[in-house]
Amino acid sequence: MEAPPPFASSSSSSLFSLRNKPLSSPTITHFGNTKPSKSFSVRASSSRDSVVTLLDYGAGNVRSVRNAIRFLGFEIKDVQTPQDILNASRLVFPGVGAFAAAMEVLSKTGMDEALCSYIDKDRPFLGICLGLQLLFESSEENGPVKGLGLIPGTVGRFDSSNGFRVPHIGWNALQITEDSGILDDVGNHHVYFVHSYRAMPSDDNNEWISSTCDYGDKFIASIRRGNVHAVQFHPEKSGDVGLSILGRFLNPKSNMAKKPGEGKASKLAKRVIACLDVRTNDKGDLVVTKGDQYDVREHTKENEVRNLGKPVDLAGQYYKDGADEVSFLNITGFRDFPLGDLPMLQVLRYTSENVFVPLTVGGGIRDFTDSTGRYYSSLEVASEYFRSGADKISIGSDAVYAAEEYLKTGVKTGKTSLEQISRVYGNQAVVVSIDPRRVYVKDPNDVQLKTIRVSSPGSNGEEYAWYQCTVNGGREGRPIGAYELAKAVEELGAGEILLNCIDCDGQGKGFDVDLIKLISDAVSIPVIASSGAGAPEHFSEVFYKTNASAALAAGIFHRKEVPIQSVKEHLLKEGIEVRI
């Protein structure tokens, strides 16, 4: 990943004491079933064999790795001293944060020498993401910065000039060598990547390479030498395939109770994302709801909040159904809650125990003061979401205000929520959610904002429109267009854009292809199409006609009108790569 940890200025002795513990873990009763239903059986045969040593220096979401290890039946011992590394029977290093910051921590604590000694002795090791990159000689990220120097080569940034979007986010295919070890039976399956930097194959490091991946160029997806393994992708976020990889590392002698089925992966897949709008109903229970042009109440005498299920249960079902990501949108303010008691944090904690695909959460990512007078910065709010299991956070209204100020002054202050969170956790962890509505005009010269000729004329025959951004759940229009906002937030540090459309929301007539093409052509970061899906054909249309990297739906999945698997089967028939 590409950002310093939130405690980069702390003393090195305190870094390892930060165990990513949530501020509080209250009990809950209304979010859904929390019992795991395990597909794998790789439990160790003795108490010592059941312990996995985890090198976690406190940055980002490592909860998912912890949950995956525990899901597979193993206990975790956290590294506190270099001796803990040397004493480990197996070591997992899920590197998160920036290359330079990680190396600084490892060097100051003596962990670097312990790691090198451990790996040199061919002890069981699994590095994940940055845990792979640190094994190389150096990185260009904010550098050059020296690495552990165990593998020849330099880690460099993807080249976005050739049309490939950076960060590399999504499910991509592996090209596996003959002796891949933990990757056996994984060929032809997609695994989940999220990164902007990568190591390249060379004659000098070829003997280490166990798989590669194509994204503009062929880069190193995994390495293996003896008992030493490292992967650029995230097995803890790669579904059953990822769990099988972790299981083979944790217990190489075990026969997996469930192996991945046949796959057809050949390149980066288009993602199908399930979105859950979550809010409290009038009884105080947290429920999944769905709006009609952002109105979430039933048109009945009671005017109650539309209730489509419990968030943890639905998220678990969508994971089983094949959703590539699950996105939670918190549409209740929760302004009176202390940060550690926010209901959405509890939803994330329970969901991440059994859902092993990326989780995004949005809504309420801003500065706020609770009922006790305690002030929380947006960075603190985001940090707690990450510690509770989120892989990405989505910023809405705050990003609009930041973009407006940036376009007015041309100055990046570094103080906005978007800039702060992106700097600390990396732009791949920050999604900006844009909520625009069409504003028709007779002449594109009538406004100074970007206008386009639209395929559906206005009520008075207008052929042009611009897309006005809104805040506060679509209730307030702002003097900035979706095009201008998208360009600005990319410069401010967004790694992905979630593109909604108020006009299409809940209508089931298809995505706003005009809008999505406009934005996906304008930026070099991935764009997620949202709002309006009503049939599988709407997904293929948006992928054929625009450069969207993913498409999101909510109501059609909640109401079981269109199963996720039906969408993917349709896309496959249309020749569009998806993860099966």
UniProtKB/TrEMBL annotation:
GO terms for biological process, alphabetical: L-histidine biosynthetic process
Location within or outside the cell: Plastid, Chloroplast
Location of the Glutamine amidotransferase domain: 54-240
Keyword Nuclease included in the entry's annotation: no
Binding site for substrate: G364, N500
Source domain of life: Eukaryota
Binding site for L-glutamine: C129
Pfam families in the cross-refs: GATase (PF00117), His_biosynth (PF00977)
EC numbers for this chain: 3.5.1.2
CDD domains named in the record: GATase1_IGP_Synthase, HisF
Family listed: Belongs to the HisA/HisF family.
HAMAP family (alphabetical): HisH
Name of the protein described by the UniProt record: Imidazole glycerol phosphate synthase hisHF
Native source organism of the sequence: Glycine max
